[in-house]
Design a protein that fits this description.
Its EC number is 2.3.1.-. Keywords: Acyltransferase, Transferase. This is GNAT family N-acetyltransferase. It is an enzyme of class 2 (transferase). This protein is α+β, with helices and mostly antiparallel strands. The protein has one domain: Aminopeptidase (3-Layer(aba) Sandwich), CATH 3.40.630. Helix content is 32%, strand content 28%. The protein has 5 helices and 6 strands; from the N terminus they run ββαααβββαβα. A 6-stranded mixed beta sheet has the order 1-2-3-4-5-6, with helices on both faces. Helix 4 links the parallel strand 5 and strand 6. The longest helix is centred in the C-terminal third of the chain and has 15 residues. The protein starts with 10 loop residues before the first strand and ends in a 14-residue tail after the last helix.
């Protein structure tokens, strides 16, 4: 039986920049600016604790850096559903504005695709806000399909 907590060692070289796995507090802090770009409602003071809690639930945060600065990051986790089985779900994918157009987001997606294939998963899924047209173009270019609507009820 597959555990919902997973651990994959990451240090893959792609292009000139390595994809690194955030494991230490310093790594998580290094990703703050990138994640804040996507999730501006988060507070820096609670960011490390929140990411650690997510990691305890199976979340993994990988990133690409330039000159010691994280410029792109992807957060994902193992999930399993009755309708389509085991897969990785991408919670977060973000690149700092000054570093967009360099292929970092696409490289991080390909990285997660390879990890999923290695584990025998047939799917990688994500949700994306309607207004994120540039992101949608990337997802469609990488072979994602619009498979459903995601509904949420605010309580």
């Amino acid at each position: 039986m597959e555990s919902t907590i997973f651990k994959i060692e990451v240090n893959s070289l792609m292009g000139n920049s390595a994809i690194k796995q955030a494991t230490s507090e310093a790594d998580i802090i290094r990703c703050w600016d990138v994640i804040k770009e996507l999730r501006p409602h988060l507070q820096q003071s609670s960011f490390v604790q929140l990411v650690r809690e997510l990691m305890n639930e199976g979340y993994q945060l990988d990133y690409i850096e330039e000159e010691g600065k994280a410029v792109s990051a992807i957060g994902y986790r193992y999930v399993q559903y009755l309708f389509n089985g085991r897969q990785f779900y991408i919670d977060d994918l973000s690149t700092l504005p000054d570093y967009r157009g360099k292929g970092y987001g696409g490289r991080l997606l390909e990285h997660v695709f390879k990890l999923a294939q290695k584990k025998g998963y047939k799917y990688v899924s994500l949700d994306s806000g309607y207004q994120r047209h540039d992101a949608h173009r990337l997802y469609l270019d990488k072979g994602f399909i619009l498979a459903s609507h995601h509904f949420i009820k605010i309580l």
